Amino acid sequence: MRKSFLLAAALANLAGCGSQGQKGPSAASAEAGIPFVEFGNIYDWRADGSAGIYLQSSDRKWFHATFMAPCENLPFTEHVDIHTTPGQSLTKFDSIEVRGEDCYFKTMGPASGPPTPVKPAKP
Fold first, then answer.
1. H or E stretch including 108?
2. Is residue 68 situated within a structural domain?
3. What's the pLDDT tens digit per position in 50-83?
4. What is the pLDDT of residue 31?
5. Which of 1, 46, 94, 104 is within CB 3.0–4.6 Å of 54 for a Cys-Cys bond?
6. Which helix (H) or strand (E) element contains residue 43?
């Protein structure tokens, strides 16, 4: 009994050695999120066509989320509902709702902000 416990502890220690100090995709993804969304931590948002959305937190940091499928109603709305687990940060595992359409995030990460519109040149 004691030998099997020691063997299990040694294997668990070995399994953890290879991942120490490395940042894999899951660790990087967990860092990109907006905390306290349920308390109004979203300051602004901008549609990125139907492919994604730019979200600005109350500390003025921008994030960009892309969708698993086109969010057809997003370019034509003035209001979005954010769906996240209460007490958790808004991450790539969450979604928004636009006019009854659920739009699930595929990716989410920090961004410098939405692109600035290009004004046409004067003739």
1. strand 101-111
2. yes
3. 999 999 999 999 999 999 999 999 999 999 999 9
4. 53
5. 46
6. strand 42-48
Q: Does residue 93 contact residue 34 with C-beta atoms inside 8 Å?
A: no
In whole angstroms, give the CA distance from residue 50 to residue 101.
Answer: 12
Handedness of CA 54, 57, 62, 68 (dihedral sign): negative
C-alpha distance from residue 81 to each of 10, 23, 38 (Å): 48, 32, 11
Question: Is residue 106 classed as helix, strand or coil in its secondary structure?
Answer: strand
- State which amino acid sits at residue 62: W
3 occurs within a structural domain: no
**Strands, sheet with 101-111, edge to edge from the N-terminal-most edge strand:** 42-48, 52-57, 62-67, 101-111, 95-98, 81-83
Q: Which two tokens stand for residue 69?
A: 């499928």
Residue type, 30: A
Task: Please check whether residue 14 lies inside any domain of the structure.
Answer: no
